[in-house]
Amino acid sequence: MRRILVTGINGFVGRHAAPAFVRAFPDACLLGIGRTAAAAPVPGIPAPPMAYRDTDLADGAAVRDVIGAFRPTDVLHLAAASSVQQSEGARAGTWRANVGDLVTLAEAVADLAPGARFFFASTGEVYGRAFLDGCPVNEATPPQPAGTYARTKRVGEEVLTDILHGGGHRVVLMRPFNHSGPGQDERFVVPSFAAQIARIEAGVTPPVIAVGDLDARRDFLDVRDVVCAYVALVEKAEGLPGLSVFNIASGEARRIGDILEALRRLSRRPFEVRVAPERMRPSQIPVASGSAAALAAAIGWTPAVPWEDTLLSVLEDARRRVGADPTRPVTPP
Fold first, then answer.
1. Is the Cα torsion angle 172, 177, 178, 179 positive or negative in sign?
2. pLDDT tens digits, 119-143
């Protein structure tokens, strides 16, 4: 029987992954771990019947207890400090979470779960300045990470290559590009716009959207498409090489200003767009997109959720949460 361990089950992606893995692996033993008392579902998605254990990955003894008792055949590592901007203000904490905790987990898997397959949610951000070439990057593009978050994820890839792949474990390095959906918080651009619109619609703030750089272009996906890629990779792991790297991307660079205009068309009230100096972080990388041709060839994955559906789902989620408490920031439960 497969025994699948998912870290970061309480995070944005984890709360979407939980029901998807329950559906895809009905006969498997599934365990989610995180750092709160219970795995909170995304609104509108029933809580899945997945076992849960409150575990701090910084606690080496606790991690070894979990790995030793559960003996996973597959580990999907989602837990991370995931905000690019926030990581710049918390560099040491980001390195501890994204590298230190990963070393602890990898060592426990190497020692206590022989043969376990390890699936690492890295990021398309590892390509960094390679995006300046102006073309969608592929897995053969040498990473040039810029910034704390990207550097920690790139080092995490090397950690797993050394500790696990070097020890005979199959390792899959997954590089998802920007993804959004219900449950994501306001540190990220799409839910930030959506939450501001929801407050305007509720009449609790003036009809003004504060924005930063609207000219940057980024590759966006729906979180459900990203989770589908994760599920398919775990399903087909036996057919993959001992060390694999896959971009998870749409191949299309969307202008941030165009995303705001699409949300404007969905808004129930008109609003003004105003540049906020504190949000202006001119990007050194004007365009970033990736090719997922390798992933399509390996497992047949392509994005399936229309972008307009993604935007509407994020806006509806913001409306629901603002309706529950108009003064509270839209953050995960």
1. negative
2. 999 999 999 999 999 999 999 999 9
263 touches 150 (CB < 8 A): no
Indicate if 153 and 52 belong to the same structural domain. Answer: yes
From residue 55, alpha-carbon distances to 22, 36, 37, 40, 60 in Å are: 20, 8, 10, 15, 10
Alpha helices in 5-136 (DSSP H): 12-24, 60-70, 84-88, 91-95, 101-112
Please state, in angstroms and rounded to a whole number, the distance separating the CA atoms of residues 315 and 16.
17
* CA pair distance 7, 31, nearest whole angstrom: 9
Query: Residue 264: in which H helix or E strand, if any?
Result: helix 256-266
Residue 329 lies in a domain: no
What is the reported pTM? 0.93
Q: Which of 220, 198, 223 is nearest to 209 (CA)?
A: 198
Cβ atoms of residues 163 and 103 within 8 Å: yes
How much is the average pLDDT of 257-265? 98
Q: 294-321 burial by CB neighbour count: b if 16+ within 10 A, else e?
A: ebeebbebebebebeebbebbbbbbbeb
Distance CA 69, CA 277 (A): 51
Please name which of 245, 230, 283 lies closest in space to residue 142, comparing C-alpha atoms: 245
Residues 6+ apart with CB under 8 A from 252: 219, 220, 289
279: containing domain: 184-219+254-287+306-324
CATH number at residue 319: 3.90.25.10
